[in-house]
Amino acid sequence: MRRGYTAREDLGEDPMMAARPVFCVLATLLATVSPVIARTKPSSTAPALTLNAAGYYEAPAANVLVFSNWYDGLFADSKISGVEIVQQGERIATNGDVRLSATPGQWDAIGRLVDRKVDTATGAITVTLEYPDYKWQYRVRSEQRGGAIAVSVILDQPVPAALAGRAGFNLEFLPSAYFHHSYMADDATGTFPIYPADAMVATPDRNAASGRAEGPGAEPTAIAKGTRFVLAPEDPARRVTIRSTAEVQLFDGRNQAQNGWFVLRSLLPAGRTGTVLEWTIQPNSVPGWLRPPVIAHSQLGYTPDARKVATIELDRNDRRTLPARLLRVGADGSMTPIRTAPAKRWGEYLRYTYLQLDFSAVRQPGTYVLEYGATRTAPFRIAADAYAGAWHPTLDVYFPVAMDHMFVNEGYRVWHGDAHRDDARQARVNHEHIDLYAQGPTTDTKFKPGEHIPGLAVGGWFDAGDYDIRTQSQYQVIRSLADSWERWRPARDTTAIDWTRRKTEMHVPDGTPDLLQQIRHGTLQLVAQFDAVGHAIHGIVEPDVAQYTHLGDASTKTDGLIYDPTLKLGEEKGGRSGTPDDRWAFTTKTSALNYGSIAGLAAASRALADVDPALSKKALDIATRTWAEEQSHAPDLYQHGNTTGGPLEAEHFSAAVELLRSTRDPRYATAVQSLWPAMEKRFAFTLRDAVAAIPFMPPAYRDGMIPAVRAYAATTAAAAKANPFGVPITTGGWAGSGTVLGTALNVYALHTAFPEIMPADAVFRGLEFLVGHHPASDISFVSGVGTVSKEVAYGNNRADFSFIAGGVVPGVLIVKPDLPENHEDWPFFWGENEYVIPEGAMWIELALAAQDLANRSAGAKPTATMRAGAVQ
Question: How many helices (H) and strands (E) does the chain have?
């Protein structure tokens, strides 16, 4: 059972008695409900939920958020929206809103937020939303009512005829929060299923969320019905009571898709206006409950010379004074206290209070744990090689598993077969696709829409927890890996790759450094794009949602046979197929993508010069030829989503820098110099490129950079004081591990080039954040790295509640206004838990950089092995 401390625990009383529910669960229901509306009546003995200064309702250990969050970006349904419940520090319900299906998924329509008004005098929140396609607006109003929040749906115009029987008020509950729990629906009882197994009803149309590409649709049937639901009556930490003026149905959304939630839903009546529905939502409140402390620290440990600070995260109502201790672990299991200065109060951040324990003076190597009151961490090390090998799982496991167009084997396990042998078909014109891909008014190729484009079924990595090849990610990774190679030359070899047989064998050396092999694999895809169509393409992505939602072996997504429209569906002949399952290539020409690819190819040409001189030469030839072609005309400015390259000037600058590094040609130095004034204005985003050009530019170029470096150093120092973790923590719908990685690598670059201006400490703060020193928990966000790391993540194996070693997740998502969150019990929060390849490459870079700095601090000789941070 999830619970924290209660005030009585310190007095020696039974904590279970202190956590006893304080409201009457079995309140008498109204015997009848009028045709217009009848107010539901909550228990009068529950602690009142009151509107706080942050704009949400709060009682001890219970919060109700009403449209503090609303998301309309990559997917309409990202489980951050509408009415939400936070209970004992965990968000256990979301998406309380009018929806058009019982179990909506990522691509289902969601109401558009028009406005949100908070009346602090009455404690009411009124939100106006609309479904523009149906020209229909509605309001969701919440108000305090005793120990509950009354939520009403108010209509000025009736439900449109097209939505009658479809529009209903939904509230979704996190399945993992209710596993092993029961529910009551009026007088009926039941238990929440661990695995979905409910009856389905056939429908004429398929739900986009279902992942089914063929045949009729199907919708789940209700598990239970009633006007009063009590969820988890046996568990004070999860008990929620809902009373309604209309029938409420309970659905298991996992019958439709693995990422579905438990959904409570009431249909809106047709032909009515005014207050057409009211629920009272009463999350159980436990007076005196305190969230258990979290001791944020590096799961990798620390080097002897390092700054060592643990941050203790406390419930803001936790007034106890408890000892914070560092304990050295003995071989006999003994725990010896090590003298440190007392923990100091840092202050408040978001919804928590923080203390910090500085044990930097402790330098003796060994195994340690931290302790605050009854909370004790997992063991960590103080050792000169604390960071050594932190990048190994990413290179050894994560990147091999991400290799597209290869059969990938690990011992007894096949991660996936040779995927996408049928790549790729030309996307149709004037088409906006899924996952932010789109095709413009022409193909910009010699291929007709739907026609097979030869030569693309080679190289590249799966971009994220899905399987597309996003070109922008490909060249970012190539450049990052190439930088790691050129700085540190890590010769680690644990993967055998045979491109002729299209086979990758993990944990088997083949005589070639793995980093170079991964650079080669990405380069093969970029080169293939230019060979096939003459320019960089947006990427290659699934043709439909059914393929996009595929989980498991990527080779089973398609039949591997090139589509032939002259064949019947399912027919195979002459190595071709009548099944149109081939991925689509989006090919509208954009100069930003061309420049980004030029940079990637130029960087690859240097890294591959010895291991594959032919590919190295070809990559550089394409880069220089494409640069000349881009200089001959006005830029192609097509843009859509995040698949058409970064800002044009920044991509242009990157290309000039990488070509200068590869060729030493003064033409590119001239381009770097001419583009620098624009880059100075966006220095935080381009400084690593700017610094990389310094050795190849006149001294005046470096001198001219100094004001920007000083400004960035000052900004970084100020930002380090904004929270107790000393790193930039973002607040968008995608959490901020990438920002932390980028900032740490920026600091490393500037410290290397301008050590007199930029100190190196932010590099270590960034690394420590990734491996446990962050809000909400102390787990490492790099799977398999550190004593306790991310083990339930959003990879393409997410339905198994598992992980891919070395994958880096987005990390701490700030649920507005003040809840830091990262769920380890539910992998499908893609904004918190989805692996992406650029962050993997940046983690390799950062881990090597930290080891490099640690070696310098310790005065170690910069041998190749030490530069690599590896034990070879």
Answer: 18, 42
Condensed to tens digits (0 to 9), the pLDDT of residues 380-436 reads 999 999 999 999 999 999 999 999 999 999 999 999 999 999 999 999 999 999 999
Rounded to an integer, the average pLDDT of 197-208 is 83
Q: How many whole angstroms separate alpha carbon 556 and alpha carbon 8?
A: 57
Task: Report the DSSP pairing between strands 469-470 and 366-372.
Answer: unpaired
Angstrom distance (rounded) from CA 865 to CA 872:
7
Q: Are 265 and 249 in contact (CB under 8 A)?
A: yes
Tokens representing 735? 């959490």
* Token pair 């040409």 in the structure block, residue: 605
Per residue in 248-259, pLDDT (tens digit) is 999 999 998 999
Could you tell me the CA-to-CA distances from 92 to 238, 261, 283 in Å, in that order? 8, 10, 10
Six token digits for residue 529: 């794009």
Mean pLDDT, rounded, for 338-353: 97
Nearest-angstrom CA–CA distance, 678 and 685 = 11
Contact criterion met (CB below 8 Å) for 237 and 87: yes
Q: What percent of the chain has pLDDT over 70?
A: 92
**Local structure of 486: helix, strand or coil:** helix
What is the C-alpha separation between 149 and 42, in angstroms, rounded?
A: 9
Q: What is the longest distance spanned by two Cα atoms in the chain?
A: 87
Alpha-carbon distance of 149 to 352, in angstroms, equals 24
Rounded Cα gap, residues 721 and 729, in angstroms: 12
Is the previous residue joined to 817 through a cis bond, with omega within 30 degrees of 0?
A: yes
Which residues, other chains included, contact 545 with Cβ-Cβ below 8 Å and sequence gap of 6+? 107, 208, 209, 211, 434
Per the rule left: phi > 0, alpha: psi between -120 and 50, beta: everything else, 664 is left
In tens, the pLDDT along 771-825 reads: 999 999 999 999 999 999 999 999 999 999 999 999 999 999 999 999 999 999 9
CB proximity list for 562: less than 8 A, separation 6 or greater: 422, 452, 575, 576, 577, 582
